[in-house]
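Key idea: predict the complex, not the pieces.
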Amino acid sequence: MSPAVLVAAVAAITVGSRAVSVALLPPPRGPLAGVVDRLPAPLFAVLAATTLLGSDHASASGVWLAAGAALVTVRRRSLLLTVAAGLAGALVGRALA
Amino acid sequence: MTITGDVTEAPDEPAVLVAAIPVAAAIGVLGVVYGAVAEPVLGPGLTIASSVAAFSGAAQFAMVGLLAAGGSAGAVLASVIPLALRHVPLAAILRPHLRWGRGRRVLLSWFLTDETVGLALSRDAQAERTVVLSGAAAYSAWVAGTVAGVAGASLGAIAPLAESVFPVLFIGLAAVTTRRRRDAVLAVVAAGAAAVLLTVAPGAGVLGGLAVAIGVAAAGGRR
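Result:
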């Protein structure tokens, strides 16, 4: 398979999975609606853990300081503040390394 | 002022775009990294084309990483399919907030990413508008970042930040989608369980994490 065909296949899988999911999934009902309603925060928390622990840089102190600084701000529920704090933590970690 | 059916809504595009700034900036930084990493593997044209056509950092980094390591096309597709399955729970949690018909939802799906869904759930504004505006900002940043990376742009002093961008972004999205104390408890439990799973079975990856999140959300409704 040539690289161009492979890129096209990756794009087709990605774009197709988005389209099919959004177009065909009905609004959840019954017990499933409750699960879906509770899903967002655990889902993003799991993605945070996955990217943190699955990263090639998981052993770097800057990544952990970034995560720690971001966690300090979560009660404010401001994405801008959390990202700014996290990146500031990463810079501090880098300076200390 | 926009009138949609019997619902009257104040225009809030500037607020949505302000909320999208950290997302677009983070994605732009990763785009530069992707462009720089992918260009020696795919060449300049195909690298930019991949970002234009796929708009998926996770899938594109997986593809380039495997190709650079000598992986086969089959290995690339086998790694991309589980990542694509992530769109099912994302669409499921967004679906109750969508009022558009199926045809327009297909167009909307171009911008279905973790980040745009998180922003849409965190705002009172019409979900479709938030996904489109924040998605357009993120897509522009991703493609522009890729072009800059291909052209040899250097992140300079902010290069060390790239590795921290996604953990921080997802922590922020978990926070803004937490509406009740119970959500916070479930998020902590899910993150802890995922950490244990990934420590014990590093190969569990995204699919294992998704299973943990769905399991915790399901268990969280039991009394």
